[in-house]
């Protein structure tokens, strides 16, 4: 039984990408808006063995309220045999995670995982078509 989908809001939307549940977070995530993000995090970590990617690349600001929501969701995912990872290419967020002592807990991915690239054509060898 799959969980009831959460409605997108101005700060978060959820979708499926292969085996992952992706939560795309945007805007300023602070005390006033972290609850909107937490709704998506709770829904994504509700099932057994969740594999959640939280895409923070569109986030302009994140405070301790947002970090708390991420920590709670990561704990829930781990308790259910799954994982929660962050996607961020912003040095500012990496510094925030380091300052909060969370960089080891959340080593950020720079991009969303995608299909493996095709191997390059073999450029040398006897069977190379001309």
Notes on the protein architecture:
The chain is α/β, with parallel strands linked by helices. It has a domain at 12-99: STAS domain (Transcription Regulator spoIIAA, 2-Layer Sandwich), CATH 3.30.750.24. The chain has three helices and six strands, in the order E-E-E-H-E-E-H-E-H. The protein has helices at 34-44, 64-79, 91-99; strands spanning 12-17, 20-25, 27-29, 51-55, 59-62, 83-87. Strands 1-2-4-6 form a four-stranded mixed β-sheet. Strands 3-5 form a two-stranded parallel ribbon. Strand 1 (12-17) and strand 2 (20-25) form a beta hairpin. Helix 1 runs parallel beside helix 2. The protein is globular and about 30 Å long. The N and C termini lie far apart (54 Å).
Return the CATH class of one domain.
Answer: Alpha Beta
- CATH fold-type name of one domain: Transcription Regulator spoIIAA
Count of DSSP strands? 6
Number of helices: 3
How far the N terminus sits from the C terminus, by CA atoms, comes to: 54 Å
How are the SSEs ordered, and which strands pair?
Blueprint: E1 12-17, E2 20-25, E3 27-29, H1 34-44, E4 51-55, E5 59-62, H2 64-79, E6 83-87, H3 91-99
Parallel strand pairs: 2-4, 3-5, 4-6
Antiparallel strand pairs: 1-2
């Amino acid at each position: 039984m799959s969980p009831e989908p959460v409605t997108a809001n101005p700060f978060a939307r959820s979708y499926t990408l292969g085996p992952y549940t992706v939560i795309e977070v945007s805007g300023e995530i602070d005390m006033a808006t972290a609850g909107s993000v937490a709704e998506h995090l709770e829904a994504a970590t509700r099932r057994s063995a969740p594999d959640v990617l939280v895409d923070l690349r569109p986030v302009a600001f994140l405070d301790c309220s947002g970090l708390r929501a991420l920590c709670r969701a990561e704990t829930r995912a781990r308790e259910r045999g799954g994982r929660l990872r962050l996607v961020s290419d912003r040095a500012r967020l990496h510094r925030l995670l380091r300052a909060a002592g969370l960089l080891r807990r959340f080593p950020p991915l720079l991009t969303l995982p995608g299909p493996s690239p095709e191997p390059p054509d073999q450029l040398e060898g006897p069977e190379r078509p001309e």
